[in-house]
């Protein structure tokens, strides 16, 4: 007669020693150190990416400057006008279209046709799309003081033509292009409250697009100057005050980019050379 014996399996070594599964002190330290490093490095990485986008924006404007100066050489030293009414009357033909052959960027003839499109160097990588101003390819505004505008929305008294290079007194300190939220292709850029208050409705609207964007890159913005070089300028803090959607300037920049040379002679650059 056979006798069968049933035995329990021998306990595992760790169980036999009474060990528990879970975090050891070393594992806990690794997790804590990893969390601390992540908290330190993530902002650094974000700042580096922001700096890269800023440099891309400056490069964009520099290339656009080359295109504009090439246009000038072919048109009797005269700058391309900011925009003028399309023959069909539905939109405006803009400066982006005028210099497109020189920068090899396929910008359409009318601004409306560029809606929602990020076309080559016309678009700032930090452009924030707004349903009301969905024109990322209008990331940069022309200085209306130099390039003029025949925009149909302007009164006859506010329409004017572009100037020639010979009329610019200090090209290395006068702004050609500035940041914009995309609602216009030109700006007056009146950043002192008195000058801004004297503007008409359209001029104010196109100036607001500049005021809202001039601090988009680390508290400042890229600007193309008349001699063809582009650089970052710090915006004043605060850049503007707002009530709802109404934006008004707080004070002109004393050291960065200012509206009028006569009002802020210590500024590094101006929109208006008076």
Outline the fold blueprint.
Layout: H1 13-16, H2 25-74, E1 83-85, E2 92-94, H3 95-103, E3 140-143, H4 144-147, E4 175-179, E5 186-187, H5 193-197, H6 201-211, E6 220-225, E7 230-234, E8 240-243, E9 246-249, E10 257-260, E11 269-272
Parallel strand pairs: 3-5, 10-11
Antiparallel strand pairs: 1-2, 3-4, 4-6, 6-7, 8-9
Helix pairs in contact: 2-3
Number of individual domains = 1
Count the E strands.
11
Global geometry: globular
Order of helices and strands: HHEEHEHEEHHEEEEEE
C-alpha end-to-end distance: 120 Å
User: In which order are the strands of the major sheet placed?
Assistant: 5-3-4-6-7
Rg estimate, integer Å? 29 Å
Residue ranges: pLDDT <50 for 5 or more in a row? none
Average residue-wise pLDDT: 86
Give the number of helices: 6
Q: What is the helical fraction, as a range of percent?
A: 25-40%
SS strand fraction: 15-25%
Structure report:
- By secondary structure, the protein is an alpha+beta fold.
- Helices cover 30% and strands 16% of the residues.
- Helix 2 packs across helix 3.
- The longest helix is centred in the N-terminal third of the chain and has 50 residues.
Q: Features of this protein?
A:
about 270 residues, alpha+beta, 5-stranded mixed β-sheet, 6 helices, about 15% strand, globular
Short description:
This protein is α+β, with helices and mostly antiparallel strands and 274 residues long. It has helices at 13-16, 25-74, 95-103, 144-147, 193-197, 201-211; strands spanning 83-85, 92-94, 140-143, 175-179, 186-187, 220-225, 230-234, 240-243, 246-249, 257-260, 269-272.
């Amino acid at each position: 007669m056979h006798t069968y014996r049933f035995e329990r399996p021998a306990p595992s070594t760790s169980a036999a020693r009474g060990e528990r599964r879970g975090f050891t002190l070393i594992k806990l330290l690794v997790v804590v150190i990893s969390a601390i490093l992540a908290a330190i490095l993530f902002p650094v990485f974000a700042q580096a990416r922001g700096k890269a986008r800023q440099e891309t924006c400056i490069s964009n404007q520099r290339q656009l400057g080359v295109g504009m100066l090439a246009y000038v050489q072919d048109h009797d030293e005269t700058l391309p006008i900011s925009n003028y009414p399309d023959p069909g009357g539905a939109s405006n033909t803009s400066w982006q279209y005028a210099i497109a052959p020189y920068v090899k960027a396929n910008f359409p003839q009318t601004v409306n046709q560029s809606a929602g499109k990020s076309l080559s160097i016309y678009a700032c990588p930090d452009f924030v799309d707004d349903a009301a101003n969905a024109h990322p390819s209008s990331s940069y505004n022309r200085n209306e003081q130099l390039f003029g505008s025949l925009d149909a929305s302007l009164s006859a008294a506010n329409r004017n033509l572009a100037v020639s290079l010979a009329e610019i007194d200090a090209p290395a300190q006068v702004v050609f292009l500035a940041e914009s939220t995309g609602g216009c292709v030109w700006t007056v850029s009146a950043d002192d409250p008195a000058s801004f208050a004297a503007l008409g409705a359209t001029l104010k609207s196109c100036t607001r697009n500049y005021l809202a964007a001039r601090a988009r890159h680390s508290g400042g913005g890229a600007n193309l100057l008349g001699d063809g070089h582009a650089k970052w300028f710090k915006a004043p803090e605060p850049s503007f005050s707002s009530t709802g959607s109404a934006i008004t300037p707080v004070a002109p920049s004393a050291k960065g980019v200012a509206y009028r040379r006569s009002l802020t002679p210590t500024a590094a650059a101006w929109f208006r050379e008076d």
